[in-house]
Amino acid sequence: MTTSTHQLDLLDNALDSLAEALAKFEEGDAGEPKAYKFAVLHMAHFIELVFKHHIAEKHPLLIYKEPFGQKLDRNKTITLWDAVNFINNEAADTISKEFRADLEWLKRLRNEIEHHRFTMDVPQVRITIGRLFRSVLEFLEDYSDVEIESHIPARTMETFQILSDEYEFRRRDALREADAVEEANPRDYSSGDDEPPVRLDCPNCDNPTLVLNEDSDTGYRCTFCGNEESDDLPATCDICGVQTTIGELDFWETEDGQPEGRCYYCSGRYHADKDD
Ligand SMILES: [Zn+2]
Ligand SMILES: [Zn+2]
Predict the structure, then answer these.
(1) pTM of the full predicted structure?
(2) What is the mean pLDDT of the segment spanning 40-49?
(3) Ligand 1 is an ion; residues with CB less than 5 A from it
(4) What is the mean pLDDT of residues 231-256?
(5) Concatenated DSSP letters of 154-176
(6) How far is CA 1 from CA 28, 61, 62, 72, 74, in A?
(7) CA of 36 to the centre of ligand 2 (A)
(8) What is the pLDDT of residue 4?
(9) How far, in Å, is the centroid of ligand 1 from the Cα of 153?
(10) CA distances from 92 to 59, 71, 197 (A)
(11) 70: which DSSP letter?
(12) HEC per residue, 73-89
């Protein structure tokens, strides 16, 4: 095998691993939590190969453990950490402390999976995989000619875009979280009960992610931006007890300084409008 084909193999294999990682991530998102495990393994493989490829571009022999040995042992290649050290020796902090910490996490997780000691913390796995992937993309953009996007198979393109865009990624997570709250609080509005709505549009971030939350003073919190307010939140008139929304109430200060919400009728607006 010539060194140049070896380099191509590294990149090809890296891209194959990435395609697998994306497909497994997508399966995980679709409700198959075990699939995240394989997403982790494939992602780890992708990162290792793409870093090795980066080193091989400097010189093809540099991916071997002992390029200066009398006889080159092609079975001994550098590890991911050799590659990381090399890159940082070239220019300090190219691989930042945070990026390195995420790589350590990935290594630990891979180890746990391989030794069947793996307990899945799905949200943490998703968030860290996303952050790692963006760090790698940033690294490739800044320091290499490797262009990933055109090699992404069409079927995993959506997942690629979500993983590479932090805002979209967080938004997707927030929507999933809101879905879960909705599932946990089934409502039968046709029964005529006055149960408060489970989910509303958030006026702060414009996502349908303002959901019931016991820890919130208003009873609601947005799973995306944390906002707890909306004119559409259910409210009760403090005078007559009618069910309405915050936006429909007028607020008055009572003598002891407490705000009092009054509906259209009790606030006197009805009479004022009628007299006009
Ligand atoms: Zn929001
Ligand atoms: Zn009223």
Answers:
(1) 0.74
(2) 94
(3) 202, 204-205, 222, 224-225, 227
(4) 91
(5) GGGHHHHHHHH-HHHHHHHHHHH
(6) 38, 13, 16, 14, 11
(7) 52
(8) 55
(9) 33
(10) 20, 31, 53
(11) S
(12) CCCCECCHHHHHHHHHH
The predicted structure's pLDDT at residue 276 = 66
How far is ligand 1, taken at its centre, from the CA of residue 230, in Å?
10
Compute the distance between CA of residue 6 and CA of residue 218 in angstroms, rounded to an integer: 61
Q: Relative to the alpha carbon of 210, which ligand is closest?
A: 1
**Residue 260, class by beta-carbon neighbours within 10 Å (0-12 exposed, 13-18 middle, 19+ buried)?**
middle
Mean pLDDT of 48-56: 93
Distance from the alpha carbon of residue 167 to the mean position of ligand 1, in angstroms: 13
**pLDDT band at residue 7 using 50, 70 and 90 as cut-offs:** low
Position 86, amino acid? F
For 93, residues 6+ apart whose C-beta sits below 8 A from its C-beta are: none
CA 240 / ligand 2 centre spacing (Å): 4
Q: Running DSSP on this structure, what letter comes out for residue 248?
A: G
**Is the per-residue pLDDT at 1 higher than 50?**
no
Closest CA to 262 of 247, 243, 244, 249: 249
Mean pLDDT of the chain: 90
pLDDT at 8 over 90: no
> How far apart are the CA of 211 and the centre of ligand 1, in A?
10
Which ligand has the shortest distance to the CA of 249? 2
